[in-house]
Amino acid sequence: MPQAKKRSSLGLVLQPMKRTGKTVANSLILGKPNTVLYPYQKLELPIGYRGKHIVDFKRCIGCSNCVQICPNDCMWMEKLEDPELGKIERPGVDYGRCLFCGLCVEICPTVAIHESVEFELAHHERSKLKYGPKELRDDSFAGKVKEERQKRLLPILDMTKCTSCEKCAGECPEMAIAMMPIEGVGKTKPEINLGKCTSCKKCETVCPESALEMEEVYESYFEMPEPKFLIKKCTGCGACARACPADVIYMMDLPGTEKVLKDGKKGKPKKRAVFVLEKCVGCGKCYRACKFDALEWPGVRK
Amino acid sequence: MNLFEFCYGIIHWLVDLINHLWYWLGDVLPWWFGDFFDAVGNFAASQGHMAVMTIFLEVVIVVVIALINVLNFIWIFRKFMGRMFDFYGPYYVGYRIGGWLQNLADGIKLFVKEIIVPAKADKMGYLLAPIIYIGSSILILATIPFSENFGVATNESGSYVPAGALFALAAFAIAPFSILLAGWASNNKYTLIGGMRSAAQMMSYEIPLLMTVASVFLLAGSYGFVDIVDAQHDIWFAFPLFIGFLIFLVCLAAEVEIIPFDLPEAEAELVEGWTTEYGGMRFGLFYFTTTIRSYAGGALATALFLGGWHGPALIPDEIWFLIKAYIVYTIFQWMTWSLPRVRVDQMLGIGWKRLLPLAVINLMIAVALKSMGWF
Amino acid sequence: MAEMWINMGPQHPMTHGLWNLRVKVDGETIVDAQPEVGYLHRGIEKLCEGKTYPQIIPLADRLCYGSSLTWSHLYCMAVEDLMNVEVPERAEYIRVLTIEMQRIVSHLMWLAAYAGDLGLGVGFVYTMREREVFLDLFQALTGARITYNFPRIGGVAHDLPPNFERDTLRAISYFEGRLKEYEDLFEGSKIFMMRNVGVGILKKEDAINMGVTGPTLRASGVSYDLRKDRPYSVYEEMNFNVVTHKDCDCYARYRVRMDEMWESCQIMKQALKKMPKGKVRIVSPRNAPVGTGLARVEDPRGEGMMYIVGDGTDKPYRVKIRSPIFVTVSAAPKILIGYKVADVVAIMGGLDMCIGETDR
Predict the structure, then answer these.
(1) Mutation site for B-interface testing, chosen from C3, C184, C341 by largest number of B Cβ within 10 Å
(2) Which residues of C lie inside 8 Å of B (Cβ-Cβ)?
(3) What is the ipTM of this complex?
(4) SS3 state of residue C56
(5) With an 8 Å Cβ cutoff, are A13 and B83 in contact?
(6) Between 3.10.20.90, 1.10.645.10, 3.40.50.150, 1.10.8.60, what CATH number should domain C43-327+341-359 receive?
(7) What pLDDT is stored for residue C131 in this prediction?
(8) Architecture field, domain A53-143
(9) Could you tell me the mean pLDDT of each successive run of 10 residues in chain C, 360 residues long?
């Protein structure tokens, strides 16, 4: 530890002048002063720097998790019409309010939004600081930003193809798949415990209908809530299935509930919603879409 | 050739030129105008009138040179301070000459700012203080010559001022009055404290200053600048009177208000001290005058202690004088940016308890040297 | 001369932050003092009640912008206490490393403001230059320079970037060299010593009675440091000294902070050496149980504390923040009376005021 020493009266003037004299000599003779002449010389920023956002339209599923976690309410979802992707909803950012905190980047389930190193965003008018999705679009940022999240290869179920043959449950070496009955429909569906999965791909090879596909899924460190389904109140309207961005909800027929029409023919059966909760990203759109209180969202303060 | 003779020559030529036109006009016009024109022309060509005009021209030349030097000083101050702080000084304005034009840009900025007078301020004092301050500071330059032949009121010219150095020091000492006036008239508690501090500081540091200069007068045997510089042709006074030189530098730093002694203008405590309520070009004039005072102080130090304009004959005498004044100023800047500010009671302690006994010792050394016949 | 009240602030170059200090002055001597805070109140405790737990982390950063990582770390510790979450070991070592780096950054900013107020402009510029080295390290690690948003509930946001250890060790050795050179500028200058020695004496009993903590308390001779007395995180495994000084004046506070910077460098080197491999983050729970969580840390300015009440949902019911400077500023009248106006700068600067955390 440097100790304090008593200084003589020479320290009145000469000691500090020695230090400043050394700095002048350094900057004049041995090199340049410690200044970056800003507009003409720019600093190189590291790749993890949090600046302007870029959104990959192809990876984004429009779940609006980023909009919900933003601490300062600076993002919004805008409905767009894209020639390739059809009718989509993508996020825009208001840089007049943005904190550049990076929480939206961490919560995105498909790593579709990122922060680049661009920071020169000042403008004379406040309205120009609102960047819509089209100005943030960059579909090929894969090589330009720091990819930090871990990926896992996990089996993803497509319920429309599943025939309840139960071969996947028998094949899994970790006993991670359990067949659970779907109430009212009379079929069973595989429920996969993703924590036990080792990505061995045996369930994918054995399924005869190719209903299980191995896909790369990014790990999320925020516990996302899952909706709780109350079948008594479900009327089969299908609003939740249309609202879900991640293909979690499938409408299946309830056999034995067809109405008999006036001329003796049978009408269409009622439907119920079936949830494949392994794919759920916790966005809450189904909860907000259901008008009959058939879905419960955990931990909401009323 | 003397400065006086040079300016006299110019004025003579100018008066001749105008008088040609004037007398011709007097001849052309009818008789009652003719006499009038002749009388005016004769008056213009008389000795007294031409001498007065010469002195005006000399004053203009010296003041212009002082202003250009002050601009240079401010440029050196900002560049040197920048290098000490490890950045560039002014860089972009006047890019190829190292940022010299930044001073002009700042001056123009100060011109276009709004000048306000506080509502409850003492108007007479408020408006009078800058005038006294600047007037007295430029008056110091009247008697300091750049060389034997270059000075407004020196020994060998038409006007003979036998007490040049004394006059310069007297003009130097008028400033505390104006600072006190500015501090009181601004109707602000901060400026009042600043003004009081400044008065205390300047009064307590005048005395060691004058005692040191008295020892120089003793060795030189005269009060005039040319005689003092001539007495240094063997050895500069800074070497035998070494203590006196150091005391003179410290007292000069206190008179000019640079950082170890800049309490009246202490930015952290008193916002801007006694200049808080001044804005626009009035403030610019205060700032400018501070630099004129340090220029005048550097010139005094050079003339009294560092041999004035003596130097090898490669460079003209005037340039030697300026070079020495610039060196004194640079050392002041180095000291300014390396040291923190002293507190009021510590500053008075230094002035009265340390510097005064040393000044007396210095005077005794001078008496000893004189009585031993070495000077 | 008559006594008069002077307002130093709220708009004043000396006060680092937005507060008012009214002093009653008799000539140049101070007779009475009254601090007034509250100009920067932003309602942070109320804002926290409407945000979910991860959303409060950037808000906690902005409590004291001079040492922001301390406060977001404090918040995460309090929430982990509430939710009973265990943090992986590598994350604890990274937290200690960044906290000590933040301590150096905060003390350097204090030194810059202190030197600048005393009239030494060079001191300001040199210490800010040293601070840039550490801010560049933070920028490579977290992506921002002042409000980092780096700790998370259950660890830290991400792992160290490549070459971070090499760069940090280089920065530490560069900085230790510079610390020795500051002796020339500060202690080598007799004027600096004259301004600081014997000024602003706060006796030991007064300091303990008023509840002052941090370097101000340690400069009055009391050896109380939360990192040694109630260790949190992995401070039990670190080898360092608690710095105290027996004079109770401004010079002692300056000396304590300079030596604390040295000790922080030693802790950083030990943390880099002892860091194990492993995860840096776990899945943070969304809803908090009904209950309370409390955490205390050794902030560069004193002892900070946060108390959180959870009610079973994903937003806290109440967040209470205890700031050290709020307590220290009430000791101002005791320290100031009897000294000169010019000493106000040295004394209040020596207490290291950061108004962001005072007014919340």
Answers:
(1) C341
(2) 4, 6, 8, 12-14, 25, 28, 115-123, 125-126, 129, 185, 189, 191-192, 194-195, 340-345
(3) 0.85
(4) helix
(5) no
(6) 1.10.645.10
(7) 92
(8) 2-Layer Sandwich (3.30)
(9) 77 75 83 88 90 91 88 93 91 93 92 86 88 91 89 89 90 89 79 85 88 89 89 88 88 91 91 90 88 92 92 89 89 84 83 85
